[in-house]
Amino acid sequence: MGADVALQCAAAGHQVVLYDIDGKALDRFVSELPGSLRGYRLMGAALPSFNAQELLARVTPSSELSALAGCDWLLESVTEDWGIKESLYRALREQCRPEAYYGVNTSCIPITRIAALMAQPDRVVGTHFMNPVPLKRAVEVVQGYHTSAETLTATRELLASIGKSAIVVQDFPGFVANRLSHLFMNEAAFLVQDGVAAAPEIDAVFREGYGHKMGPLETADLIGLDTVMHSLDVLYQQYQDPKFRCCPLLRKMVYAGVIGKKVGRGFYEYGR
Amino acid sequence: MDNQFNALCQQIREFVEANMNVDDEVALKDDDNIFRLGYVSSLFAMRLLNFIESISGITVADEDIVLPNFSSIDAMSALIQKYRSAA
Prior knowledge:
The structure holds 2 protein chains of 2 kinds. In chain A, strand 6, helix 6 (149-161) and strand 7 (165-170) form a beta-alpha-beta unit. In chain A, the strands form 2 sheets. In chain A, strands 3-4-5-6-7 form a 5-stranded mixed sheet. Chain A is α/β, with parallel strands linked by helices. Chain A has 11 helices and 7 strands. Chain B is mainly α. The A-B interface holds A 35, 38-39, 41-44, 50, 132, 200, 203, 207-208, 213-214, 218, 268, 270-272 and B 15, 17-19, 21-23, 38, 41-43, 45-46, 49-50, 62, 65-67, 70.
């Protein structure tokens, strides 16, 4: 997702430093950019530029953390794992300018907990981008305990500059997006388990009835059932509320390796 | 319509059918709008573009990279035919 955020920012005219510990991921960004831009053109993304050369000229890929030292904004999208985020933020604290803002791209890690690692916790804000970034109009912006009004203003300005609006919510586990969507996906799995309806019917109620673009089970397949299970477990652990208990069928499918689109089979079967 | 062209169209049809999010009983018609009918998500369009280019050897120009050109079997056939006649 970091690659798509970089693409979006570069297309909007920002100078971008793209940092990844894995140099191969940086090479992939460069080699896949023309194809990604064609894809987003096809899907009607409102990017100011689809010119790969023009975008690449604004992007400095680096696997050295020191390359981030001069950045005004750090939009971080590493794996949703507390240990990984913690060690990265401790390192960023040493490397980056004191005036830098930190946008934490997460759907479940508490912003307040990350802010506590930083010298200026008021400059840390949640920026939960949604996939695929260039096609989504809004970003769920999360105000942590210490996030200042000035930081929220700067966040709104940054997002406006890349064509996104900010939906500001408070820092509570799962924020709004995951807290709601995972209940839908989990309950949909319970409906299958209880034999109330099959996956296509459940999704059809959402698509053809409610007019959603996708139903909860095709969404779960797209995200990966392993990821959905993990997020539910995190929500359960943080709220200690049984409404977040993971559906046993969902867990069984994960144990069976039937985890969705990325393996060709989940609640649906996928060709090639 | 030559055999090679028909074979390409058949391959595209099979690719779409293999990726439809609907029951097996649904019969895909050549003029069905596969996105509007919810048979596939619009994200699937990207895979269609890559698939068409890989089986036909054509490179679709930027101005033709628009969803309507990939929205039905008929539209995709017409797109391939356009590039074949231009070649």
